[in-house]
Write a structure and sequence with these properties.
By secondary structure, the protein is α/β, with parallel strands linked by helices. It has helices at about 10-20, 20-50, 80-90, 115-125; strands at about 65-70, 95-100, 110, 135, 145-150. The chain starts with 7 loop residues before the first helix and ends in an 11-residue tail after the last strand.
Length: about 160
């Protein structure tokens, strides 16, 4: 019996499969799909899961930065400096670092000093301090917007990115 003659379409498809350029193009397309997937994930993560930290004052003039003093209330050496570096890297203006009146603070606190609770909430979000640990102690003698007291829970804080 006579074998059927291959059609033009089957010849061109077979020749395409054997062409090494197609393998390179397939690898390039797969790489681009992975890259687009990663970038999409990063975008969603950055804007919806962990939104960026806002260091600007609420209710203030545009460009004004929240001023903070960081107090060590846990007694661990250097904790106030570590948190100061973290806050400064995120755009906050840390104007003073010192020890708190006691070293027995179990949980970290964020204290609103000016009556603008939104500023304290921004700092608490940046540090990963629970909303229940934001308090108001308005003091006109303080020249900072927010005070941060580092407690013994500093290892369990989950700061935002």
């Amino acid at each position: 019996m006579k074998e059927p003659k291959p059609s033009r379409e089957s010849i061109s498809i077979a020749s395409l499969k054997k062409d090494p350029r197609n393998l390179v193009l397939d690898i390039l397309i797969a790489s681009l799909v992975v890259l687009v997937g990663y970038l999409s994930y990063s975008l969603l993560e950055r804007h919806f899961v962990h939104p960026p930290v806002d260091s600007g004052r609420s209710g203030g003039a545009p460009g004004e930065i929240i001023q903070i003093d960081v107090l060590n209330g846990c007694g661990a050496s250097g904790m106030a400096s570590i948190f100061t570096d973290y806050l400064r890297a995120r755009g906050y203006d840390v104007v003073e670092i010192r020890n708190y009146k006691t070293f027995d603070m179990e949980e970290s606190l964020v204290i609103d000093r000016t009556g603008n609770l939104k500023n304290a909430q921004k700092v608490a979000y940046a540090l990963g301090v629970r909303k229940e640990n934001i308090v108001q102690q308005i003091n006109p003698d303080y020249y900072v917007d927010v005070s941060v007291v580092i407690g013994k829970d500093y290892t369990s804080l989950e700061p935002s990115h």
